[in-house]
C-alpha cells in the first residue's frame, strides 16, 4: 500500500503555536495559586527565603518583567527569522518555523514564568507569612527563562543556516517516503486493473470546500466503503489543490445504488483540505522546497550556485530512495481482503521533472548547476530498478543538457557533455566509466 493513515512526525509539532504557551500558562496559574497556599511551618522552608514579603514581591515583579522582556526579544528574533527564510530561501519554509518544537517550548517557558509570577504576586501579603515555595519556584523559573533565551538564540543561529534548513527538509521528506511508500519488491496483492472499474458507472463526489489536500485518511475511507459495500477511487493526491465543486472521488456501489449523504460526507471527510501543503503525506512538497532553495540561490540578488548544487545533492538522495519504492496508484483492502479504496499517486517521471525542470531553466547559464543536475541523474541511474525508470532518467538528462546556454565557452560546454555521457554510461551499467575521473569533478561542486 502506498499511503497509510498515519499522522504526525517525531521532529515537529502539528499544534498551532499558541497551544503550548496557553496550556503552560494555565498550569503555571494553578501551580502559583496552590504553592501560595503552603505556609512555611518548618524552619527549613523559612531558612530558604529569609527575606520579608517586600523582597518577595520585588522578586516576583522582576521575574514577571524579565519574562515579558525575554518573550519580546524571542518574538522579534522569530519575526526576523521568518523574514529571512521567506526572502532568501523559500516562503514555503515558514511552516518549519511555525511547527518547530524548540520555539514552542521557549515560548511556553516564558509564558509559564510570567503567569506564575503574577499568580504568586497576588498571594503576597505583609500580614501573612512569606510564600517561600512561590519565591523559590519563581527564581528557578527566572533562571530557566534566561537559559531558554540563550538556547533559543543558539537554535535560531543553527536553524537559519541554509545547510540546516535543507537537511531538515530532506530528513522529513525521507521519513515521508519511508512511511508511505512500500519497497519496490513488495508487489501489491491487487492493482486498480484487477477491480475492473467502469468509469462511466462511477458516482462522482464533489468537494464542498477549497484548499490543498493535506491528508488522506485511508482507514476511514476503507471503513466507509465496507459499510456501504462499495469501492471508492480517490482522484486527488496529497498536495493537490482542490477547488469547491470539483471531483475528489468516485464511488461504485453494488447494484448501482445511489450514494447516500452519510457515505458522501464520509468520503469528503477523509480528504482533509487545508490552506497550505505539508510534507507528512506529500514527499513532492519536500522536493519542491529544496528546488525552491536552489532556484532562489540562482536569482540575480543572491547568485549562489554552490547552495543550488547542495540542494541538488539532497534531491539526488531523495530520488534514489524513491527509485527503490513502489510508486503509482494503490488498492487498499478491508480485513477480508476485498479491494475497497483506490488511491492515486505520483509516478517517477513527476519526481524527476520536479527536481530538474525549473532549476535547469534558471541555471541554463551556470555550468555548475547543470553539471550538478546531471550528477544527480547519474546517481539515480545507478539505482533504477526497471527500464521505465531508466527511460525517465535518460529523458531528463537530455532535457537538462538541452537547456545549455549558447553563451557558454567550449570548456564548460565540453564538461556538461561529459557529464551527460556519464549518465548514459550509468544507465548502461558502465559504473566505472560513469564515476571515475582524474580531478574529482564528477563528484565535487
TrEMBL record:
InterPro entries: DUF2254_membrane. The chain crosses the membrane at residues 17-38, 58-85, 106-124, 130-160. Keywords: Membrane, Transmembrane, Transmembrane helix. The keyword Cell membrane does not apply. This is DUF2254 domain-containing protein. It comes from Blastococcus deserti.
Amino acid at each position: 500500500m502506498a499511503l497509510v493513515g498515519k499522522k504526525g512526525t517525531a521532529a515537529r509539532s502539528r499544534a498551532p503555536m499558541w497551544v503550548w504557551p496557553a496550556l503552560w500558562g494555565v498550569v503555571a496559574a494553578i501551580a502559583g495559586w496552590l504553592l501560595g497556599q503552603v505556609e512555611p511551618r518548618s524552619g527549613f522552608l523559612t531558612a530558604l527565603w529569609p527575606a520579608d514579603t517586600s523582597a518577595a514581591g520585588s522578586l516576583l515583579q522582576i521575574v514577571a518583567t524579565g519574562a515579558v522582556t525575554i518573550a519580546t526579544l524571542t518574538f522579534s528574533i522569530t519575526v526576523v527569522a521568518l523574514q529571512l527564510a521567506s526572502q532568501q530561501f523559500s516562503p514555503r519554509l515558514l511552516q518549519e518555523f511555525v511547527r518547530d518544537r524548540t520555539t514552542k517550548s521557549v515560548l511556553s517557558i516564558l509564558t509559564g514564568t510570567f503567569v506564575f509570577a503574577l499568580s504568586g504576586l497576588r498571594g503576597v501579603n505583609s500580614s501573612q507569612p512569606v510564600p517561600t515555595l512561590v519565591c523559590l519556584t519563581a527564581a528557578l523559573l527566572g533562571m530557566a527563562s534566561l537559559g531558554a533565551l540563550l538556547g533559543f538564540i543558539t537554535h535560531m543561529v543553527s536553524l537559519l543556516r541554509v545547510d540546516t534548513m535543507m537537511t531538515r527538509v530532506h530528513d522529513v521528506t525521507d521519513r515521508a517516503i519511508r512511511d508511505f511508500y512500500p519497497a519496490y519488491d513488495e508487489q501489491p496483492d491487487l492493482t486498480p486493473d484487477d477491480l475492473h472499474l467502469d468509469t462511466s458507472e462511477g458516482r462522482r463526489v464533489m468537494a464542498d470546500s477549497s484548499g490543498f489536500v493535506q491528508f488522506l485518511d485511508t482507514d476511514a475511507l476503507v471503513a466507509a466503503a465496507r459499510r456501504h459495500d462499495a469501492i471508492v477511487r480517490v482522484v486527488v493526491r496529497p498536495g493537490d489543490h482542490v477547488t469547491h465543486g470539483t471531483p475528489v472521488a468516485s464511488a461504485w456501489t453494488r447494484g448501482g445504488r445511489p450514494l447516500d449523504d452519510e457515505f458522501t460526507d464520509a468520503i469528503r471527510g477523509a480528504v482533509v483540505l487545508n490552506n497550505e501543503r505539508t510534507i507528512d503525506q506529500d514527499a513532492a512538497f519536500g522536493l519542491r522546497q529544496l528546488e525552491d532553495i536552489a532556484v532562489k540561490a540562482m536569482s540575480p540578488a543572491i547568485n549562489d550556485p554552490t547552495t543550488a548544487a547542495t540542494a541538488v545533492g539532497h534531491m539526488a538522495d531523495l530520488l534514489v530512495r524513491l527509485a527503490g519504492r513502489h510508486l503509482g496508484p494503490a488498492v487498499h483492502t478491508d480485513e477480508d481482503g476485498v479491494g475497497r479504496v483506490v488511491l492515486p499517486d505520483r509516478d517517477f517521471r513527476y519526481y524527476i521533472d520536479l527536481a530538474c525542470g525549473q532549476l535547469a531553466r534558471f541555471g541554463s547559464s551556470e555550468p555548475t548547476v547543470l553539471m550538478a543536475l546531471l550528477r544527480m541523474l547519474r546517481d539515480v541511474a545507478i539505482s533504477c530498478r526497471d527500464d521505465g525508470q531508466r527511460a525517465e532518467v535518460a529523458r531528463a538528462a537530455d532535457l537538462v543538457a538541452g537547456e545549455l546556454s549558447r553563451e557558454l565557452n567550449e570548456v564548460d560546454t565540453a564538461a556538461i557533455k561529459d557529464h551527460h555521457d556519464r549518465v548514459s554510461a550509468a544507465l548502461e551499467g558502465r559504473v566505472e566509466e560513469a564515476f571515475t575521473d582524474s580531478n574529482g569533478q564528477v563528484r565535487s561542486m
